[in-house]
Automatic annotation (TrEMBL):
<dbReference type="Pfam" id="PF01315">
    <property type="entry name" value="Ald_Xan_dh_C"/>
</dbReference>
<dbReference type="InterPro" id="IPR049648">
    <property type="entry name" value="PaoC-like"/>
</dbReference>
<dbReference type="InterPro" id="IPR046867">
    <property type="entry name" value="AldOxase/xan_DH_MoCoBD2"/>
</dbReference>
<dbReference type="InterPro" id="IPR036856">
    <property type="entry name" value="Ald_Oxase/Xan_DH_a/b_sf"/>
</dbReference>
<dbReference type="Pfam" id="PF20256">
    <property type="entry name" value="MoCoBD_2"/>
</dbReference>
<dbReference type="GO" id="GO:0005506">
    <property type="term" value="F:iron ion binding"/>
</dbReference>
<dbReference type="InterPro" id="IPR037165">
    <property type="entry name" value="AldOxase/xan_DH_Mopterin-bd_sf"/>
</dbReference>
<dbReference type="InterPro" id="IPR000674">
    <property type="entry name" value="Ald_Oxase/Xan_DH_a/b"/>
</dbReference>
<dbReference type="InterPro" id="IPR008274">
    <property type="entry name" value="AldOxase/xan_DH_MoCoBD1"/>
</dbReference>
<feature type="domain" description="Aldehyde oxidase/xanthine dehydrogenase a/b hammerhead">
    <location>
        <begin position="32"/>
        <end position="138"/>
    </location>
</feature>
<dbReference type="Pfam" id="PF02738">
    <property type="entry name" value="MoCoBD_1"/>
</dbReference>
<dbReference type="InterPro" id="IPR016208">
    <property type="entry name" value="Ald_Oxase/xanthine_DH-like"/>
</dbReference>
<protein>
    <submittedName>
        <fullName>Xanthine dehydrogenase family protein molybdopterin-binding subunit</fullName>
    </submittedName>
</protein>
<dbReference type="GO" id="GO:0016491">
    <property type="term" value="F:oxidoreductase activity"/>
</dbReference>
Length: 728
């Protein structure tokens, strides 16, 4: 189905199932530990054995030799595959460093061999006997040094005359900000079981994008993708770290071919950080100029990040092109070469670090103007792209977010003068920030099967990375077919099913439900035909199909055998005529310990403007999870770089600290009630990443309000606050 004009009145609008707060249909499997994750799929292939990765101990250079003699003789060892013997491979389009192959070391902990043994312990013990002879080469690991030596190129976006407008503005700020590298820290490690049958490969793995995985694995292995099946029905978090095939899949495939048995490979937690991808660190520069009336006249945002040769930048300036009004604007993204592990997508790439800087800058600008930060943002709202005023936002309720949030949070009780509020040993502060994130769309398919008993089975390669895909896709099918949620059976994450959008870029929910919608439109037509009903007047509800005076059980349409149809929603060009984005506002209360500088987040509120909310429970869970992630980004998460030896030092969850539920006593989410007919047939937009955008800055602004200490370099660890705290 081509979605080629704004959505109108569809069966979805009844909202009997869609839009209702249904708990996750996979919830019982998750909470009872019976949802099978990749490494636990003991039942899928007989005779599974274990692969343990050997990873590079240098950040850059060449492998002269790998001595595997001792390991081969160790108990239980079945074989060893080394990267030099496999040889270099082509990569998928979105990755830079090789996953497994060749004699080049491009980054620390790059996979260079896999040891296969009967048991996990035997594989691990034998791997320790492998010794590697390297010819190390000098690498570049220091972003600050590389950025200082870098000559900036032309702006990426320039509108009006930023430099003149900034020079003439009566009120300005000109500040530099930095965000550190972060990594996804998904609960479930990267893991794969691989099995060959002749020249056909099946991988049971943990991956966000099944069709990309299949395509890229075919490229890496040099085999036709028709010969590959990828199955990933349950995924313990991805956050962008599992958008692409990773080394566990490639090693498992080579290992299984070598020993002629199914092989399971998991990346041990201490290998994931340097073997995998991460969110690159940024150095940002923001200048804002405004009139004394508070209207922004000039805004520039520049960002520098590093990556391996051939890699991409962290596009931290994207939102600054159109979030706030202002005729004269400029953005520039600089990319420098570093030999650290590969920088790539992590939840809301671009906007997350970009808004961590921009929304502090907006707070500083409001203070310079002696304006309230909420009022300053509302004054500079825009309903058109300021650099391209012919382009309107399809739906933009940002001012509603600000006003609803301020009222619900009790913003008016905040003391705008920093460092004034104290409760015992705690300095109390309040801060806020705006949120902005795009809402892209990818084609998405589904197959629906009406059973003779009236149930409907939905099959799609869509993934559920802990987000709620199972539930919202089932809700869509139930609504369309007039069934109860319990009458829908979901089958996801298998490349044997129609290709869906997958889980990424916060497009998963809106696109995958649109794919189910398209398939169900076709199924309704097939049912009408089977029952001899006029489909123009047909209604599906309560398990019945009604047309005029006739009412027939839906099951009867399949009395002679199941009816199977499939379709793919394609998103037409009309959709790009307007700016399609999501908006929000974050409000935070912090306490900063006056003696130690320890910061505790006491309460958080997010207000989200994302079109139709398909399920308030799963949407809320996405947002509070994102808010929690934002607390980590603000206060604790930082990949510490050893700039001499070229790796991330804190490569486990003991030293890379992420927040947990009990760190944040109160989190609330408000959804703006709206629909966006230009976004999808269900009028929904993305939300999974919006909840993270701006959180870090809201916390930094709250810490400033509490202490009077303005921290522009994340994370806000206590050492950055101590010198500015009051005498005790
Ligand atoms: Mo998201 S970084 O596209 O998984």
């Amino acid at each position: 189905m081509l979605y080629d004009s704004p959505a109108t009145d569809t069966p979805i609008e009844r909202l009997r199932v869609v839009g209702q707060p249904h708990p996750r249909i996979d919830g019982a499997l998750k909470t009872t530990g019976t949802a099978p994750y990749a490494y636990e799929r003991h039942d899928v292939a007989e005779g599974q054995v274990y692969g343990w990765p050997v990873v590079a101990g240098i950040p850059k250079g060449r492998i002269l030799g790998i001595d595997t003699l001792a390991a081969r003789g160790a108990p239980g060892v079945l074989g060893i595959v080394t990267a030099p013997e496999v040889g270099p491979h082509e990569n998928g389009p979105m990755n830079t460093a090789l996953l497994f192959g060749g004699d080049r070391v491009q980054h620390y902990h790059q996979a260079i061999a896999v040891v296969i043994a009967e048991t996990f312990e035997q594989a691990r013990a034998a791997a320790a006997l492998v010794s590697v002879d390297y010819a190390p080469e000098a690498g570049r690991f220091d972003l600050h040094a590389a950025a200082a030596a870098h000559e900036p190129g032309d702006p990426d976006m320039s509108h009006g005359d930023f430099e003149s407008a900034f020079a003439e503005a009566p009120v300005t700020i000109d500040q530099r900000y930095s965000t550190p590298g972060e990594y996804h820290a998904a609960m479930e490690p990267h893991a794969t079981i691989a099995a060959w049958e002749g020249d056909r490969l099946t991988v049971w793995t943990s991956n966000q994008m099944i069709a990309w995985a299949r395509r890229d694995l075919a490229t890496v292995l040099g085999i036709p993708q028709e010969n590959i099946r990828v199955d990933s029905p349950y995924i313990g978090g991805g956050f962008g770290g599992k958008l692409f095939v990773r080394s566990d899949v490639v090693m498992a495939a080579h290992a299984a071919r070598r020993v002629g048995r199914p092989v399971k490979v998991m990346l041990p937690r201490p290998f994931i950080t340097n073997n995998g991808t991460h969110r690159a660190a940024t150095l940002q520069h923001i200048r804002i100029g405004a009139g004394t009336d508070g209207r922004i006249t000039a805004l520039s945002h520049e960002s520098t990040s590093g990556n391996l040769p051939g890699g991409s930048p962290e596009t931290a300036t994207a939102q600054s092109e159109m979030f706030y009004a202002g005729a004269n604007r400029m953005t520039r993204v600089n990319l420098v070469e570093l030999d650290l592990p590969e920088g790539n997508a992590m939840r809301a790439p671009g906007e997350t670090p970009g808004l961590m800087a921009l929304e502090i800058a907006m707070d500083e600008m409001a203070e310079a103007l002696k304006m309230d930060p909420v009022a300053f943002r509302a004054l500079n709202d825009t309903q058109v792209n300021p650099a391209n005023p012919d382009r309107r936002f399809s739906r933009r309720n940002f001012v509603d977010c600000l006003e609803r949030g301020a009222a619900a949070f009790g913003w008016s009780a905040r003391n705008p003068v920093p460092g004034q509020r104290r409760e015992g040993d705690w300095l109390i502060g309040h801060g806020m920030a705006g949120a902005f994130r795009g809402s892209p769309a990818l084609a998405s398919g589904a197959r629906v099967r009406l059973q003779p008993d009236g149930r409907v089975i939905v099959e799609s390669d869509m993934t559920d990375i802990g987000t709620g895909s199972y539930t919202i896709m089932a809700q869509t099918a139930a609504e369309m077919m007039g069934l109860e949620l319990g009458q829908i059976e979901m089958r996801l994450g298998d490349s044997d099913y129609p290709v869906a959008a997958g889980s990424g870029g916060q497009f998963g929910a809106s696109c995958s439900t649109a794919g189910v919608y398209a398939a169900c439109v076709k199924l309704r037509e097939a049912v009408a035909k089977a029952l001899g009903l006029n489909q123009a007047e047909i209604d599906f509800s309560d398990g019945m199909v009604r047309s005029g005076a006739r009412a027939i059980p839906l099951a009867e349409a399949a009395a002679g055998g199941e009816i199977v149809v499939e379709d793919t929603i394609e998103f037409g060009d009309f959709r790009s005529a307007a700016e399609l984005d999501t908006f929000g506002a974050h409000f935070v209360e912090v306490g900063v310990n006056v003696a130690t500088g320890e910061t505790r987040v006491r309460r958080m509120l997010a207000v989200c403007d994302s079109g139709r909310i398909l399920n308030p429970i799963t949407a809320r869970s996405q947002v509070i999870g994102a808010m929690t992630m934002g607390v980590g980004a603000a206060l604790s998460e930082e990949l510490a770089v050893d700039t001499a030896r070229g790796f991330f030092v804190n490569h486990d969850l003991a030293s890379y600290e992420v927040p947990v539920h009990s760190d944040i006593p109160s989190q609330e989410v408000i959804f703006i009630e709206d629909t966006d007919a230009n976004s999808s047939p269900l009028k929904a937009k993305g939300i999974g990443e919006l909840g993270l955008c701006g959180v870090g800055a809201a916390i930094s602004n709250a810490v400033y309000n509490a202490t009077g200490v303005r921290v522009r370099d994340y994370p806000l660890t206590l050492d950055k606050l101590l010198a500015g705290l009051p005498e005790i």
